[in-house]
Amino acid sequence: MSIKGDPQEAARKYGTTNRVLIEARIVHDPYDEFAWVQDWRFAIADVLAYERGVWVPGYESFGPDDSTYAYDMLTDQPGYSDDELLYAYAILTRYREWLRLAGKDY
User: What is the pTM for the complete model shown?
Assistant: First the structure.
């Protein structure tokens, strides 16, 4: 899905103007938030590390998992900047920590 249109409308509807976070919010799974947030975090980190050669703090992997929807979304739609991806990663990492503190991780 491509995000187009007014950035203020996107911010009102999705709570952000970051295009990566908007894509993630569109497919948000309210029944398994931990899996959803981890899927997007790993996909973003894989794209940054393996597609772009950008170091991602606290991330270790044996190779990209290119079989996930999130990874496909990030690689099929070029144009996301490294800064957009790093910001989305940081926000999702913070959200994952909130889920852990609430006892919703596994």
Answer: 0.84
pLDDT at 49 over 90: yes
Q: Which contacts of 6-15 are long-range, i.e. CB under 8 A and separated by 24 or more positions?
A: none
The count of residues in the chain is: 106
Between 69-76 and 33-46, two packed helices, what is the crossing angle to 10 degrees? Answer: 40
Residue 17: CB atoms within 10 A of its CB come to 16
Nearest of 103, 98, 96 to residue 36 by alpha carbon: 96
| Of 48 and 11, the one with more pLDDT | 48
Alpha helices in 1-106 (DSSP H): 7-14, 19-26, 33-46, 69-76, 82-101
16 three-state secondary structure: coil
